[in-house]
Amino acid sequence: MSNPIAFLDLPRQQKRLQGTIQRRIDTVLQHCRFVMGPEVEELEQRLAAFGGAKYAIGVSSGTDALLMVLMAEQVGPGDAVFLPAFTYTATAEVVLLLGATPVFVDVDPNTFQISLSSLAQRVEDVKKADELDPRIIIGVDLFGQPAPWNELKSFAQKEGLILIADCAQSFGASYQGRRLGHEARATTLSFFPSKPLGGYGDGGAILTDDEDLAAQYRSLRTHGEGKTRYEVEKIGINGRLDTLQAAVLLAKLDAFEGELERREQIATMYDAGMPAGIVAPARVPNSKSAWAIYTVLLPNEEKRNDLQSFLKEKGIPTAIYYPKPLHYQPAYQEHHDGASLPVSEGLGAKVLALPIHPELTDDEVERIIKALNEWSKDNLS
Ligand SMILES: *Cc1c(COP(=O)(O)O)cnc(C)c1O
How many Cα atoms within 13 Å fall on the side-chain side of residue 63? Predict the structure, then answer.
């Protein structure tokens, strides 16, 4: 077996960016303002500019970002929050933490993004049952490609629903010629190390164009603080971004554009080398992905598992995002109304994510493509 390939290569990334990261960290070690130091505000300004939003608020994680956005809308018991069934648990757990009800929506079988027709159906379901108040839609840019934001915006407007963007996987992607960051009332980001803009620990941010909301998020991340330090205006959380994380992210942001280009190059190489029978991810029209994840589709679970073992033997790691839709997970089953969401229910058996990160060399990508072709010759004809 040749050298194993990494699914996420933080050591190589370290080596490439070590100088600037170290300098940024050293500055923090000198001023010692570990909570809300100057790097946090500097990062906020850079994030807002990058995402094309007026305000950015650095927070403790992508999950806490979603939580605070929903807290600001006073989401609670009796509220319905619509979100895709095929996403990471964080999108839905914050809804239940606030006592509201997640209403799961199916996804498009080709792009894996939220399905507009299913969304319309699910809103009708909730209205008909007449038990919950339809309030919020959380759009998720799954795997780094944009959700259908224009359609979501018109639908939300027509129905009087608030639209929130979970951009945890997609910061850096663009939609109809502009960077994601202001398609919704609030956009949440995650800097978990494996996300396209990853820190060296947990971190996140909220982007918004609304000055009043920005002030509310700032208050919520510091225990609901009012105008002065020990005035408690409302119930908040400890949801701040650490200064050290902001320092690392500032160094990473300098290299981010180049990394996004490299991810795009790798996706293009995969697309071109994909054997017949393994389906490359469908591109969302008129957009550019941040390629957090590159997911291919196999005809069925047996083939998918077989390919995964074959690649593993060759030192090529893969991952399955996500094995089950959320409404099949034990924690969510009892909160689901029983609607069937056939696409989300079928995808878990067929998806396989290939390595895609800026440290992959052309040789490694070619090795992966060669392995895919070798396997498909014997298994897919
Ligand atoms: C990673 C992720 C989150 C949560 O972000 P954390 O920073 O890990 O809390 C939320 N939504 C989606 C779609 C994610 O992939």
Answer: 15
- Nearest alpha-carbon partner for 137 in 158, 152, 115: 152
Task: For residues 112 and 149, give the distance between their C-alpha atoms in angstroms, rounded to a whole number.
Answer: 14
Q: Which atom of ligand 1 has the smallest separation from the CA of 292?
A: 15
195 catalytic residue (yes or no) = yes
Domains in the chain, ordered, with CATH? 10-251 (3.40.640.10), 256-379 (3.90.1150.10)
> Which residues have CB under 8 Å from 123's CB, separation 6+?
82, 134, 159, 161
Nearest CA to ligand 1 atom 7: 62
Looking at residues 111-116, what average pLDDT do you find?
A: 98
- pLDDT tens digits, 59-97: 999 999 999 999 999 999 999 999 999 999 999 999 999
User: Nearest Cα to 57, choosing from 75, 72, 43, 71?
Assistant: 43
Choose the catalytic residue: 195, 252, 288, 350: 195
